[in-house]
Design goal:
This protein has about 300 residues and is of the alpha/beta class. The chain has helices at about 5-20, 40-50, 65-70, 75-85, 105, 120-130, 150-155, 195-200, 255-270, 285-295, and strands at about 1-5, 25, 30-35, 60, 90-95, 110-115, 135, 160-165, 175-180, 185-190, 230-235, 245, 275. The longest helix is centred in the last third of the chain and has 16 residues, at about 255-270. The structure holds threonylcarbamoyladenylate and magnesium ion (MG).
Length: about 300
């Protein structure tokens, strides 16, 4: 059920989380499907509702750096620098985990992805629940991420008891994921915090590994973030037969990210045969949007 934000709905959502239930909530990036990260049964429910393979690790959301530090074995100097600069915000740090973080959250890996979201509703929920919250994007596996409460409801229906509605997400694509658990920091997923911004703070960073089709690299599935309708990058080949629609993005990378999923959801609902999009610039600030378009158009 979609619920407007009020003190009562916030209290109910926090109680649901504490009792091991799922809550869909807004973040600045996309809507998340949250469960108590320290309750393995609750975390397993996320995988059931999403139809997500258990090999794909979840991001844990906390409301303070102190809480983040409590979940990991070591907290490198780079983590302090990045957290001070970018948290709360759309950056996930992958660090070596403490045993208290269940295997269900990390897909059995020895590392955990953590972030402090920059959204007042998310932060209030995290404080009220009093527990770290594991949350992937609140969509079925491989489908488009939700940037409104209605997107969440359209995809998951009543399998989530409460969907907290705080309007559209400002950032619009998922967080940048950076691993600090490798000798040289590794970019695992590009986002709106660019490689250049991260390099300024930590120095050399290994680029994102190329996406793969199978489940060999957690969360790096090539077919991801897809509309039901076939998405085609325009280029040398002619567009196919049938009825199509154009995805037009604003010329600014940040604005394009903010409207990308909403536009794709809307075009998907037209029931056309294909959606076409022009390639975006090859510059660093477009990495996040380019990555999502590449995955959304992989067949
Ligand atoms: O913006 C976001 O990050 C949103 C909001 C809800 O916070 N969440 C999100 O979660 O996009 P999800 O599950 O759709 O994507 C999680 C990403 C995956 O690419 C996954 O591989 C990576 O984070 N990840 C999480 N934990 C990891 C770990 N221990 N090692 C490597 N990658 C990890
Ligand atoms: Mg996702």
């Amino acid at each position: 059920m979609i619920c407007r934000i009020s003190p009562e709905t916030m209290a109910r959502a926090a109680a649901l989380l504490r009792a091991g239930n799922l809550v869909a909530f807004p973040t600045e990036t996309v809507y998340g499907l949250g469960a108590d990260a320290l309750n393995p049964g609750a975390v397993r429910r996320i995988f059931e509702v999403k139809g997500r393979p258990a090999t794909s690790p979840l991001i844990v959301h906390v409301h303070s750096i102190e809480r983040a530090r409590g979940l990991v074995r070591d907290w490198p100097e780079n983590a302090t620098r990045l957290a001070e600069k970018f948290w709360p915000g759309p950056l996930t740090l992958v660090l070596s985990k403490r045993p208290m973080v269940p295997d269900e959250v990390t897909a059995g890996l020895g590392t955990v992805g953590i972030r402090i979201p920059a959204h007042p509703v998310a932060l209030e929920l995290l404080r009220a629940a009093g527990t770290p919250v594991a949350a992937p994007s609140a969509n079925r596996f491989t489908q488009l991420s939700p940037t409104t409460a209605q997107h969440v409801f359209d995809g998951l229906g009543d399998s989530v008891e409460i969907i907290l509605d705080a309007g559209p997400c400002a950032v619009g694509i998922e967080s940048t994921v950076l691993s600090l658990a490798t000798a040289v920091p590794t970019l695992l997923r590009p986002g709106t915090i660019s490689l250049a911004q991260l390099t300024d703070i930590v120095g050399r960073i290994e680029p994102a590994p190329p996406p793969v089709g199978a489940h060999t690299s957690p969360g790096q599935h090539l077919r991801h973030y897809q509309p039901r309708t076939r998405l085609i990058m325009t280029g040398p080949n002619p567009l196919p037969e049938g009825r199509g629609a154009y995805l037009r993005l604003p010329p600014d990378a940040g604005l394009a990210a903010a409207c990308l999923y909403d536009k794709l959801h809307a075009l998907d609902a037209l029931n056309v045969d294909w959606i076409a999009v022009d390639p975006v610039p090859e510059t660093r600030e477009w990495d996040g949007v380019r990555d999502r378009l590449r995955r959304a158009s992989a067949h």
